[in-house]
Specification:
Structural class of chain B: alpha/beta
Helix content of chain A: 25-40%
Shape of chain A: globular
Largest interface: A-B, 13 and 10 residues
CATH architecture of the largest domain in chain A: 2-Layer Sandwich
CATH topology of the largest domain in chain B: Rossmann fold
Structural class of chain A: alpha+beta
Strand order of the largest sheet of chain B: 3-2-4-5-7-6-12
Distance between the termini of chain A: 38 Å
CATH topology of the largest domain in chain A: Chloramphenicol Acetyltransferase
Shape of chain B: globular
Oligomer: heterodimer
Number of helices of chain A: 10
Largest sheet of chain B: 7 strands, mixed
CATH class of the largest domain in chain B: Alpha Beta
Number of domains of chain A: 3
Number of domains of chain B: 2
Order of helices and strands of chain A: EEEEEEEHEHHHHEHHEEEEEEHEHEEEEH
Radius of gyration of chain B: 20 Å
Strand content of chain B: 15-25%
CATH architecture of the largest domain in chain B: 3-Layer(aba) Sandwich
Helix content of chain B: 25-40%
Largest sheet of chain A: 7 strands, mixed
Radius of gyration of chain A: 24 Å
Number of strands of chain A: 20
Chain lengths: ~375, ~325
């Protein structure tokens, strides 16, 4: 993503803001994103008009920090003023599919750039055919011809954008990442029994779904096996926070991957709240920028009434994706006896550049062990 | 193939000799001085026979002392003659560098504009004759660096014959580079071709897809490459710089504005060569015309080796030009 259109300011000069407030709504290639503020203070000036399209990184507004409410001179003001920019995290990779999907900047020859500005052509809509995908004179001429011939420039819809973003990220993943796959079966009797008991104490709205136990078990296991929580960027870069990206399927096709921040530190109730809050917003394409940008590992969970096994495709630059199939009744041999149990097939697809099967195995076995002690989750 | 009417087929060596002969015939003040130019007929047989035609006063053998006889040539020019000083190769010309830079190129300035130095210094350049590292270099860029000189490169038979007479009309010092590798090369040139201009670059082939800009031994290679590329459906333009100082920026920028892509080709070592200078000027003057980065093919930065195949590998060949341009235009 290289640009966004400011749809709406939710604040005006003089508004007092604090960290985490939503101050604006920006339309991007994948829909609307809420822009959060990371400073406390008073909005001094809005620098961008509504419906204006600006590149990522553009200064949007000036804020006077909380303690400096009466700036004496413009100069002093300038020194103290904080700035808000669309968070650069949006254009880096992790959370949303935006980042990996749409190239973060385009290359164009000096001639192509000059022609585009003379002829009023938006280069971000032009496909480059030159070396390394650079936009050349020919590409601009083609775009110009199409424009003049009255062929409407087809602006991909949000749905198409997401499809393209998924396609690009998954293509890159399969091209660049040597995946290895592991699978194990988990007897879910104990966790499900725990949930039944736990949910008796809860209102319908508060009830926990099995998936929160899975998320928590994964988050805890990552603390023990941190090698799967990170990015591959010319080497394995471990992340200190465990932000679990949770794949949400959109009814129109495509997926969004909002991040559950620091899932290891959240209680199961807090995790359930997060899911209840995030999933509808993801489906409405109203996620916060930080939710789209920060995930460090991904979980894909198919849930009820679905196939038993899913092998994920890693979301670059992450190095692992954990897959949960649906929990189904299965024959289960234990202590020389055959029994019927609710069984979950859990898989791991991990980046073989970053880790080896031994690490992956250790991780899955830890998740499994965690699930057998649901009360500690 | 028969030579068309009005054309003659001659070698590059013969063209150089005709240039000398015509110049000596036309102006009594003109004389040739250099190592072995007389009795031996020139190290590369360019002046063979001229001693008999013009006598020892005008075809003058000199001692093996480049600094000494180049200085003498400069003195003769100051004294009203029109000397042609032949330095056997650019490699030995370094011995005369002090005379060239501190006297020939500087005296007009030092004399407050009173003393022009109408000397012409010819030298052979480049590889192609298996003469190894001390006889084979292409040091045109060293001379092109010096203000006060006019530096020419004869990359075609027309220029081999036509540049010398023009240079002799210049009131200021002119250095002419002649390509060793082309001496035996035959070409057809107009029988009446004579003096050429020595101020402009020439478009040797009109094209619209890319400008190949070169000089000296690169010219025919670029023309051959352009033909091969044309057969493959591409349409390159070829420019022979001809004048390495002062560079004909107008011709270069005109071509860049037409093709928007540039490949610079020369045999001189890659670092700090003519291409480097041109690349910078194109960036300064025609940046917004460029549709791709300017690229260069230069000589390998090694002392020129003796074996033929290594000598060939040291400088850009026709096939290298073709390959590079295909990559620039098709980049698949």
């Amino acid at each position: 993503m290289e640009a966004g259109t400011l749809c709406e300011w939710l604040v005006s000069p003089g508004s007092v803001v604090k960290r985490g407030d939503i101050i604006a709504v920006v339309e991007t290639q994948k829909g609307l994103i809420d822009i959060e503020v990371f400073e406390e203070g008073t909005i001094h000036k809005l620098l961008i008009k509504e419906n204006e399209k600006v590149p990522v990184g553009t200064l949007m507004a000036l804020i006077i920090p909380a303690k400096e409410t009466t700036p004496k001179t413009e100069k002093r003001l300038a020194e103290k003023i904080q700035t808000i920019r669309p968070t650069p995290a949006i254009q880096t990779t992790a959370g949303g599919m935006i980042a990996a999907g749409i190239k973060s900047s385009f290359k164009a020859s000096p001639l192509a750039k000059r022609m585009a500005s003379e002829k009023n052509i938006d280069l971000s809509t032009v496909k480059g055919s030159g070396e390394g995908g650079a936009i050349t004179r020919e590409d601009v001429e083609k775009a110009l011809m199409e424009k003049e011939a009255g062929i409407p420039v087809v602006k991909p819809s949000a749905v198409e954008n997401i499809r393209l973003a998924v396609a690009a990220a998954m293509t890159r993943s399969n091209r660049e990442i040597p995946h290895y796959y592991l699978e194990t079966r988990v007897d879910m009797s104990r966790p499900l029994a725990f949930l039944r008991e736990a949910n008796k104490q809860r209102t319908v709205k508060q009830r926990l779904l099995p998936v929160v136990l899975l998320i928590k078990a994964v988050a805890k296991a990552l603390k023990e096996v941190p090698d799967l929580n990170g990015y591959w960027e010319n080497g394995l870069k471990l992340k200190s926070e465990i932000n679990i990206g949770f794949v949400v399927s959109l009814r129109t096709g495509g997926v969004m991957i909002p991040a559950i921040h620091e899932a290891d530190k959240k209680t199961t109730d807090e995790l359930m709240d997060s899911l209840n809050d995030m999933i509808p917003r993801a489906r409405a394409m109203k996620l916060r920028s930080s939710e789209l940008a920060d995930s460090t590992v991904t979980i894909t969970s198919l849930g009820d009434e679905n196939v038993e096994t899913v092998f994920g495709v890693i979301y670059p630059p992450q190095v692992a994706i954990v897959g949960f199939g649906s929990i189904t009744e299965q024959p289960w041999a234990e202590n020389e006896k055959l029994d019927s149990r609710p069984v979950l097939r859990m898989t791991l697809a991990a980046d073989h550049r970053a880790t080896d099967g031994n690490t992956g195995s250790r991780f899955l076995m830890t998740v499994k062990r965690n699930l057998q002690k649901p009360e500690t989750l | 193939m028969n030579t068309p009417d009005g054309y003659i087929k001659i070698t590059y060596r013969e063209a150089l000799k005709q240039a000398l002969r015509v110049s000596l015939q036309k102006d009594e003040r003109v004389f040739l001085m250099g190592e072995d130019v007389g009795r031996y007929g020139g190290a590369f047989a360019v002046s063979k026979g001229l001693l008999g035609e013009f006598g020892p006063d005008r075809i003058m053998d000199v001692p093996l002392s480049e600094s000494g006889f180049t200085g003498a040539g400069i003195g003769a020019a100051l004294g009203g003659l029109r000397p042609i000083v032949e330095l056997m190769t650019v490699n030995f010309s370094l011995l005369a560098m002090d005379q060239v830079v501190n006297n020939a190129a500087t005296l007009l300035h030092m004399s407050g504009g009173q003393l022009n130095v109408p000397v012409v210094i010819r030298m052979s350049t480049g590889l192609g004759r298996q003469l190894a590292a001390q006889h084979s270099h292409s040091w045109e860029p060293i001379y092109a660096h010096i203000p006060g000189l006019i530096v020419l490169s004869a990359g075609t038979h027309e220029d081999a014959r036509g540049m010398l007479p023009a240079a002799l009309q210049s009131p200021d010092p002119v250095v002419i580079f002649e390509s060793n590798s082309m001496l035996n090369l035959e070409a057809e040139i107009p029988a009446n071709s004579g003096m050429v201009d020595i101020t402009t670059a020439h478009v040797k082939r009109e094209g619209k897809d890319i400008s190949i800009i070169t000089y000296g031994a690169g010219v025919y290679k670029a023309m051959d490459a352009a033909q091969i590329l044309a057969d493959a459906g591409m349409n390159p333009e070829v420019i022979d710089l001809r004048v390495l100082r002062p560079l004909d920026e107008n011709a270069v920028m005109t071509s860049v504005r037409k093709t928007h892509r540039v490949l610079l080709v020369e045999e001189a070592w890659g670092s700090v060569n003519i291409s480097a200078e041109l690349s910078a000027r194109i960036m300064e003057q025609a940046f917004y015309e460029l549709d791709a980065p300017v690229q260069r093919l230069g000589g390998m930065e090694v002392p020129i080796p003796y074996p033929k195949h290594l000598e060939d590998a040291c400088v850009p060949q026709t096939a290298d030009i073709v390959t590079r341009i295909k990559k620039m235009l098709q980049h698949d």
